[in-house]
Design goal:
It comes from Nocardia yunnanensis. The protein is mostly helical and about 200 residues long. It is built from nine helices and no strands.
């Protein structure tokens, strides 16, 4: 699979094609073959070969490739010259540190305030870092809506303050953090201002 498909300097007259191809690369990153196909329609002939390769990769991602093969696709896109290789979102670890950094990345896209330290401090108090934590003993639990996840969010709050681009699973660490921080931003100004049960 080719790793470099353009020269570093693309002629100005090809700018429209580059923009269209950038949309196709974005579709690959998002794992949407249909979106890639739509984007390719606007790619000029001189870029069609590359666009078709991108479309094929997107379709494969949609088909549910194993993680190692998805990593190969990511490496292929990273091998493209700027600006394509800059369209990839950062990768985060599947641990507490990675969940917080991923949530902060999503929050930043939506203008939701909060710091790593503020989130970490509240997670330690609320769940001790256990994304499957559930409180079956407080007043919320008695009312049939127990607090769940890293930041101990109840279902109605999670649904009301869910952040687009995250899972609808309340136990998903990133979704739980983002929703809790969105709620805290509306009620307290920021999760950083929360120092007790909220």
């Amino acid at each position: 699979m080719p790793r470099k498909l353009f020269s570093q300097h693309v002629p100005a007259k090809a700018a429209t094609g580059v923009a269209a191809l950038a949309l196709a690369v974005t579709a690959v990153v998002a794992g949407s073959g249909a979106a890639a196909a739509d984007a390719i329609n606007g790619v000029p002939p001189e870029f069609q070969g590359t666009a078709q390769q991108i479309q094929q990769q997107a379709v494969q991602v949609d088909a549910g490739l194993p993680a190692p093969q998805q990593d190969q696709i990511r490496q292929w896109v990273e091998g493209l010259p700027a600006p394509f290789n800059q369209l990839l979102p950062p990768q985060f670890g599947n641990d507490l540190d990675g969940w917080i950094k991923n949530a902060l990345y999503v929050m930043n896209q939506h203008g939701i305030p909060g710091s790593y330290d503020g989130i970490f401090r509240n997670i330690q108090r609320e769940s001790g870092g256990n994304p499957q934590a559930i409180n079956l003993y407080d007043s919320n639990a008695a009312a049939g809506i127990p607090s769940k996840g890293l930041l101990q969010v109840i279902d109605p709050t999670f649904q009301a303050f869910h952040v687009d681009g995250t899972s609808w699973d309340i136990y998903d660490p990133v979704a739980n953090i983002a929703a809790a921080c969105n709620y805290a931003a509306h009620r307290y100004g920021s999760i950083d201002n929360v120092f007790s049960a909220y």
